[in-house]
Amino acid sequence: MALTAASLCLCAGIGIKGYGMYRKALEKMSLEDKVASIRAKEGYTTFDELPEIYVDAVLSVEDHRFYGHVGIDPIAIARAFINDVKAGSFVEGGSTITQQLAKNMYFSQDKELERKAAEVFMAFALERKYTKNEILELYVNTIYYGDGYYCIKDASQGYFGKDPIDMTDYESTLLAGVPNAPSKYAPTVNPGLAAKRQEQVIHRLMDCGLFTRERAMETLAAGA
Predict the structure, then answer these.
(1) Within a 10 A sphere around the Cβ of 10, how many other Cβ atoms?
(2) Which of 197, 203, 142, 141 is nearest to 174 (CA)?
């Protein structure tokens, strides 16, 4: 009982501090103003300008329950918690695309519990104010793709010399895997690791029923 009470008090304390961090972030810049500033950037790419296969690939590897949750994914959080406890450190995040967007918009990359709590509050706010497609659109315009590219248009033009809408299946699946670890998976940094990560992306597409084996083989062969 004492251990349970202590755990509840700890969680409550983290939640309160996280909420305070969330409120301070909004006081510095409202969510509406922050979103407007992102959309005003040169090279901003709308959802309609994203290839369907790229969207499917991102969702498959980052948040395959994206369209069904309200900002957090309890299943992913529970799995990550168990794996973190087993490892004795933060080895798996369990963050949704909405949480990642919240972090990119307002918070640092530090793995602090208070920051994670603030991220959850911000994710809920994003889900209340914006559609799923708008959230995904903002996400691909704020994540890092390696090699100095901080949005999908810069990355597609930098790596492939074309706009996002013109990316092939091969290019879309390659790029979808990079943000997981840009310093490792950027095609210009380590082509071999980038290719292995792309294979993981394609296998996830197959697991999710979004790619046939034939299409997977054709996609991989395009890079040979």
Answers:
(1) 11
(2) 197
| C-alpha 34, offset from chain centre | 18
**CA atoms in the 13 A half-sphere facing the CB of 210:** 19
- Judge whether 200 and 185 are in contact, CB under 8 Å: no
pLDDT tens digits, 62-116: 999 999 999 998 776 666 555 544 444 444 456 899 999 999 999 876 667 888 8
pLDDT tens digits for range 44-67: 999 999 999 999 999 999 999 999
pLDDT digits (tens, 9 = 90+) for 115-169: 888 999 999 999 999 999 999 999 999 999 999 999 999 999 999 999 999 999 9
CA distance 77 to 93: 7
Residues contacting residue 63 through CB under 8 Å, at least 6 positions apart = 73, 76, 96, 97
What gap in Å lies between CA 182 and CA 144, rounded to an integer?
7
Structure tokens at 65: 């329950």
**Residues sharing a CB contact under 8 Å with residue 94, sequence separation 6 or more, in sequence order:** 73, 76, 77, 78, 79, 80, 81
Q: What is the pTM of this model?
A: 0.88
Q: Do the Cβ atoms of 177 and 197 come closer than 8 Å?
A: yes
Secondary structure (DSSP) of 134-186: HHHHHHHTTS--STT--SHHHHHHHHHSS-GGG--HHHHHHHHTGGGSHHHH-
